[in-house]
């Protein structure tokens, strides 16, 4: 069948929907042509289905994009960004002007190549790195169910809709998300799969031949399939999906990529490049679109704006329900959504602090983290925790965050399973939804598995908290596959991520306090398996960890040498410093729990802490990056390469991370 | 049923197999007790099935562990390492002495906490990071089929067996591997799933409720299930799996973790901790094992050693078949297995080099990479390429590596699909199998998705080659999700990984040459989307990239300032240097394509290249790490944070990575 005949046949199925969908296709074609780059194929293929969704099902009010009880819409295949921008423009989001559409992919425009959270209203999450959209949406659905259990369906009762392409389902994280959603029966999660049989390298058959509906069914999903260009069929599927109340729903939409393009439809040529002027014109002719570039006829625009206003009554009714709550409940709901801390929080921190100074504790910093959580979580109902199947190792479960999140009861503790990447992306979704402060644990070496989601936390400016235990060779016998070496450096290299490696119980509490207060920067806590003494013993009101680094011990007067250490190695540096003092050297020991926060200090403070004496860094990790603070990597007492399997003490000895090595280097540097 | 009764019932199913399996259980219990750490549960549960596999199906000869046509055995759930060590010891691998078993998880022993490739013979790959074992095994199966097509089933005809636990199947990479193997119909891949219903956090039901056989079936697998403690049932399943010739096989084994432990069997308590002396004794009693610690009765040892010698005839027959080949064919097969380069290779490099100097080319370095591949791949039949669905962007496909690897024809080009992590792990498997030099491409930002497999390449010392294109903001409009910032630093931080960022066609060719020659170090090529001029124009025989860094341009006499740049920014540095010379400054421009190789140079060479003048680094990436070579990050012309969506030229301007910025900094530093 020619594309002309194909389009004619499809347009007859639901003519009104087809005409409205053409607005999306036309804007997409024009914007991609104007920017001379972009991905027209997927928006053209998905236009019909999204038109149904936005016209008839999605609960939203374009005039109030942030209405808390709106349905969430996630475009997991983010390269189809023009689909979303077109929908936002057509339905009347104020910031998504035609000028923005014209400036697609240009400097300063809110219409970035991939949807960027925080740029345009209505972009619920940053997408583009494939598979993460659906996993983030799982987090949103987790949030919705939990918040509804806390505040009632009067205030919280919405769906999360996700569009995914083949790429999202080929990526492993996609399966992690599908498996977790199916396990927990997240029935308000509805995924629409753009089954267009095309991938960048050609037909999907070159690399992909699964029975996708069967895979979802195996994971406990409600599954439907239909013609993605048949508005009525899509409508029926969406209605059935919304009616399903035990399982998440998949709707597999058979579509044609680049729908309407006479020479490129159904081909990978239309995936990631402009159609070209001639083909663009031919496509518009095939679609029956006689209008000029960026031109939307008034009747169609009016119909779209009606869709954008469709939710106004719902929203007003919701506001009335919110107003009808008791003042306390209304205030608490608002607080949760706004992400402000409760009044009781400061006192909880102070009490925890006082307790540590009253009775100092020797403990692994992972244990110190658990103690901090025990002290702070009761004051913070928004905290929602979990672990990628390492609860007993990460020590992420505490009495206030203990009730398991199950299919039946949405508790505060999520068993993410051995799915680090989906966990991290779901935590992003919990943040984005609003109402929650998520944290999740795994072994630090497996930050590798979820690294790009940590990056997205940082890029989006979300306050997720990563609890990464077993942070060095100090974990011992599990060996080099489990021992982080390059991880501290590689995480410190990520912009807008705060990496903490606290030295003791006090710094761990302080790090948690900073992480909790940081609602637009993610935090990552690198925590030890092995015990360390409490080094901070003098009660002081200031959170010194917030300085990033500070002199934790001064031996003698003046400075012959400065030892900079982090985490478990601060105690080692103190031991070495004592020995150096005995040899007549004046030594300052600097604890540096956070490079990022130290860099944010005034230069005078930094100069004072670092001093002018020779400096040695001590950290049981790779040496990369430490030249920021020491003269050369020869002045770093750290790991020369990968670790090994043996008891921790032996490893420290064998790899030369010892007080003796620190002392020897100090004597060399000072010439004493 | 009591564990006593349960064990009695199971032991009656195949008494001989049960008795042999008890040797594994006993050694595991004793070794974990001795080391006071480890994972006894899985080996105890899987002992029966692995006993069947090693006694009746696995083609191996313990006296010749490296026999090329042996079956491969991968323990994907690597924490069950004592299972493997027990099997190697019992079947008579010479290096796996009882002393090694006694020293489980101790310094210097080959019995590391997780199986480490290169430590003990019979460990085909390092496992522990979950899910990667099965993906690596997919690479081995890919290798087997391709090598068989090249050299005939006389020389290459073996299976790859994989044991996986729940964790491997929860990890996303597991699904990527399953999907790819099913798509390509890798029928000689047989996966045994230890379905023990227990995960670290408790019963798998806390986080996992899939119908695993149905998921595999949806991905095109042959699926069977049986009682994992019934030796005869396992035997029958293995026989059927080996007979299947169109699909990979899954055998789901219903097992009890910690089988035999009266108080801990079937519980997560037995997953990752010693049984304890009392329970260990009770377990042995339950199993009917009256022998002392590390004691194996002679009759059982003899039966096991017979199993270890079972393949000797096969191996001898294979050697006879190898000997019967033509000398050329035998030599070529041996060369491939040994990983040495062919005689014609040097000439191919020289010809490619000559061509570049004869007709210099302006080209993106990704294009330069394609040119290098076009020139070198014809000389190297061992090269096997692919891309994670970005062939047209990575430019990884060339005439010699063009035939698609399909279900029917195992060509040299693998469409990995949008599965970066499985791609990287499969490349490890292709290396480990022997006979291949794999390379694979994706966008550099998605190195995040496969990072832990890159790490395993480095840890195992494998010569995989990662082709990472779109290496900076120079990719333009796709925006911050696609623009690497911290990636160069975070990859440079990985031990034993060579990261190359070549400046032009010549350096790209040189980097490829080094990567190809490096059979025990992985290489990662960071390549540009945008064009750069060829800067090296003077024909010289030396591969200067092998120096890591060198003075590529000298302006004036002496040095007022040194500009160190990499990749696309070398040309920018040259432009700035020209302008600085016009202002009377003597400037050396250093191209630094590889930090790792530069660090390996003699100190005198490094000092000469770096010079004593003030230094400025120029790289369109995060500044982290550059203080190794410059005084402070203020001397780095690089990215202050994440990128943005806009045309590349505009991004360079807006982020201040310009000749003007270099000039301004140079003038400040030199006071001119």
From TrEMBL, chains A, B:
- EC no.? 2.2.1.1
Transmembrane stretches in the record are none
The coiled-coil segments of this chain are none
Which of UniProt's keywords are assigned here? Answer: Calcium, Magnesium, Metal-binding, Thiamine pyrophosphate, Transferase
Q: Choose any GO biological process term that the UniProt entry carries and state it.
A: pentose-phosphate shunt, non-oxidative branch
Query: Which reaction(s) does the protein catalyse, per the Swiss-Prot or TrEMBL entry?
Result: D-sedoheptulose 7-phosphate + D-glyceraldehyde 3-phosphate = aldehydo-D-ribose 5-phosphate + D-xylulose 5-phosphate
Q: How is the cofactor bound?
A: Binds 1 Mg(2+) ion per subunit. Can also utilize other divalent metal cations, such as Ca(2+), Mn(2+) and Co(2+). Binds 1 thiamine pyrophosphate per subunit. During the reaction, the substrate forms a covalent intermediate with the cofactor.
Q: Does the keyword Lipid metabolism apply?
A: no
Q: Which InterPro entries match?
A: THDP-binding (IPR029061), Transketo_C/PFOR_II (IPR009014), Transketolase-like_C_2 (IPR055152), Transketolase-like_Pyr-bd (IPR005475), Transketolase_bac-like (IPR005478), Transketolase_BS (IPR020826), Transketolase_CS (IPR049557), Transketolase_fam (IPR033247)
Residues annotated as binding thiamine diphosphate are 79, 128-130, 167, 196, 271, 446
Show the active-site residues: 420
| Subunit and partners | Homodimer.
What this protein is reported to do is described as: Catalyzes the transfer of a two-carbon ketol group from a ketose donor to an aldose acceptor, via a covalent intermediate with the cofactor thiamine pyrophosphate.
Q: What is this protein called?
A: Transketolase
Which organism's genome codes for this protein? Answer: Gemmobacter lanyuensis
């Amino acid at each position: 069948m020619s594309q002309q005949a194909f389009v004619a046949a499809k347009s007859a199925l639901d003519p009104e929907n087809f005409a409205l969908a053409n607005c999306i296709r036309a804007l997409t074609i024009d914007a991609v042509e104007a920017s001379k780059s972009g991905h027209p194929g997927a928006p053209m293929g998905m236009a019909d289905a999204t038109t149904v969704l936005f016209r008839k099902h999605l609960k939203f009010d374009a005039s109030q994009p942030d209405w808390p009880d709106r349905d969430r819409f996630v475009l997991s295949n983010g390269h189809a960004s023009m689909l979303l921008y077109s929908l936002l423009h057509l339905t009347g989001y104020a910031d998504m002007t035609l000028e923005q559409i014209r400036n697609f992919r240009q400097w300063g425009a809110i219409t970035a190549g991939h949807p960027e959270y925080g740029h345009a209203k209505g972009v619920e999450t940053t997408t583009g790195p494939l598979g993460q959209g659906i996993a983030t949406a799982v987090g949103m659905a987790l949030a919705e169910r939990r918040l509804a259990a806390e505040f009632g369906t009067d205030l919280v009762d919405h769906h999360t809709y996700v569009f995914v392409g083949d790429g999202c389902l080929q990526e492993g994280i996609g399966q992690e998300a599908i498996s977790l959603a199916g396990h927990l029966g997240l029935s308000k999660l509805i995924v629409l799969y753009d089954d267009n049989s095309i991938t960048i390298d050609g037909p999907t058959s070159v690399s992909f031949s699964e029975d996708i509906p069967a895979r979802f069914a195996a994971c406990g999903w409600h599954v439907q399939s239909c013609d993605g260009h048949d508005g009525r069929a899509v409508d029926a599927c969406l209605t059935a999906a919304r009616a399903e109340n035990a399982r998440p729903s998949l709707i597999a939409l058979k579509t044609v990529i680049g729908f309407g393009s006479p020479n490129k439809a159904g081909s990978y040529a239309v995936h990631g490049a402009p159609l070209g002027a001639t083909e663009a014109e031919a496509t518009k002719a095939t679609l029956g679109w006689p209008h000029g570039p960026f031109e939307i006829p008034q009747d169609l625009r009016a119909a779209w704006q009606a869709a954008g206003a469709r939710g106004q009554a719902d929203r007003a009714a919701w506001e009335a329900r919110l107003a009808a709550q008791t003042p306390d409940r209304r205030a608490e709901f608002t607080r949760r959504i706004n992400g402000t801390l409760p009044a009781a929080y400061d006192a909880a921190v102070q009490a925890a602090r006082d307790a540590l100074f009253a009775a100092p504790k020797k403990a692994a910093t992972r244990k110190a983290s658990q103690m901090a959580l025990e002290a702070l979580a009761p004051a913070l109902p928004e905290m929602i925790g979990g672990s990628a199947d390492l609860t007993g190792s990460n020590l992420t479960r505490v009495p206030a965050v203990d009730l398991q999140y199950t299919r039946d009861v949405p508790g505060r503790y999520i068993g993410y399973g051995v799915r680090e990447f989906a966990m991290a992306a779901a935590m992003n979704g919990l943040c984005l939804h609003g109402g929650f402060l998520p944290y999740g644990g795994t072994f630090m070496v497996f930050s590798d598995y979820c690294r790009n989601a940590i990056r997205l936390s940082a890029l989006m400016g979300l306050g997720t908290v990563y609890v990464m235990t077993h942070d060095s060779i100090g974990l011992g016998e599990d060996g080099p596959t489990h021992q982080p070496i390059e991880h501290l450096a590689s995480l410190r290299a990520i912009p807008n991520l705060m990496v903490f490696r606290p030295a003791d119980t006090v710094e761990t509490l302080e790090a948690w306090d900073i992480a909790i207060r940081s609602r637009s920067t993610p935090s990552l806590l690198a925590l030890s398996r092995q015990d360390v003494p409490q080094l901070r013993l003098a009660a002081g009101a200031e959170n010194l960890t917030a300085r990033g680094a500070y002199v934790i011990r001064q031996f003698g007067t003046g400075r012959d040498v400065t030892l900079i250490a982090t985490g478990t190695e601060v105690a080692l540096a103190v031991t070495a410093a004592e020995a150096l003092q005995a040899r007549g050297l004046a030594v300052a020991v600097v604890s540096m729990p956070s490079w990022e926060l130290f860099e944010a200090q005034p230069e005078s403070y930094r100069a004072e802490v670092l001093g002018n004496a020779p400096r040695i860094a001590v950290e049981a990790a790779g040496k990369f990056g430490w030249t920021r603070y020491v003269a050369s990597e020869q002045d770093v007492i750290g790991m020369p390469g990968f670790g090994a399997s043996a008891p921790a003490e032996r490893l420290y000895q064998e790899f030369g991370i010892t007080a003796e090595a620190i002392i020897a280097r100090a004597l060399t540097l000072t010439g004493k």
